[in-house]
Prior knowledge:
By secondary structure, the chain is α+β, with helices and mostly antiparallel strands. The chain has two domains: 214 residues, no CATH class; 174 residues, Gcn5-related N-acetyltransferase (GNAT) (Aminopeptidase), CATH 3.40.630.30. The protein contains twelve helices and 13 strands. Strands 1, 2, 3, 4, 5, 6, 7, 8, 9, 10, 11, 12 and 13 form a 13-stranded mixed β-sheet that branches. A hairpin with a 2-residue loop joins strand 2 and strand 3.
Amino acid sequence: MGGHGTERHKIQLKLRQTVAITYLSIASPSDGSSTPAALATESSHATGFRNVEAPGAREPRATAPSMKRCLSPFQSSKPLPDWWRPLFESSGNGSVFLSPAWMHTWIATYGAHFEGTWVHWEVDGRVVAGCLLVERVIRVKRIPFRSQFLNATGHAPLPVPLAEFNDVLSLAGHGDAVAADLARLLHEQHWSRLVLCGHEPHGVAARVLDLVAGLQTERITKTARYVDLAALAGKPFESTLTGKAGTHVRRNRREYEERLGQVEVRCAADLEETLAFFSEMRELHLQRWTDRDKSTTLAADVVVGFHHRLIEALFAEGGVEMIRVGNAERAVGFLYNFVADGKVFVFQTGFAYEASSKWSPGLLTHALAIEHYRARGLREYDLLSGDALYKRTLCNGERELFWTTVYRDRAWIRVLLAGRRLRNRLKKKTAPALAEPA
């Protein structure tokens, strides 16, 4: 019996080694860049077999293949991993801000300021989910926080364009398992703050937040308004606006047409004209924000360079459109739009404002653009996050986007947050009381 037990134990050890070697050969990135620590993490989560039992127990049985977590280091000098594009194209939760063009452009522009890890999950050799975890030490009130961000987001030393609709790319049916495993991975990593920018309340990223144990969670909620073009039921957009909103939009258009004649929507015909429209839009945009003594990322050359490269990457596949509204001699407004999956994302604008406040070039530009896209058969015109009167006037739908920060439960962070709460209470107590109205 003892000899048979020893031989059986050898067979089980051999089986365990074979399973581990087979998994590592599958899970390792093609460039061989995974670290031993990363591979150890991967193999601990997903061999697809039950644990080998002790000598004398039953023979191990293979189970249905389980989900594998695969890690590889983020390097700004290397392109996107091979799995990103097909996953983006087949996932049901991708947006232009997760597109290969956006990710590649962001990494080429800002990636040198971050460390990080590519993470993807496989089932039966097929990639079913993936994301990029990027890290950077950021000082908040002179205190350094090792901050972890999801995908192409984060605070860099240079101005950074805002990304929205951020999430873990995932095929249908895998979101819960991916969220649970990503939460485990985050628990194993070293960070002080986890920052998730522009995510929806019910996505995979939101489920991760529910599972990550943190000391304190801070959340900023922003309303993102849109026009559901399909809900217009084939009717011209202006005819669907009723009450004061409809009256204001129609009167605004008539006043512009009385002064300028026919006003029309024109899409840039080629890449050269797209870049020219972008430059004109930027000039109008900067003039408006300068007049209001406010800053804008479009004032930074690095952001302009980012958008030039992004436009070049998206134009060939029809993912970007520059819209000009006006007549042959005069532009009323420009829109910098992304187009994906039947949706229009209005990312940036520039309008020719006048001294008289009764003229609204933005309202005219958006109203004509909405009708333009409705006639083309698109399904949604998304004005992204941020509240404004013209958005409330034009839109028939809204959703919420969250900017969430989770603080790790550490002794020094407890002290820091307690001090911040005390300071805020003292500020409230010392604030001057408002005088009673006369």
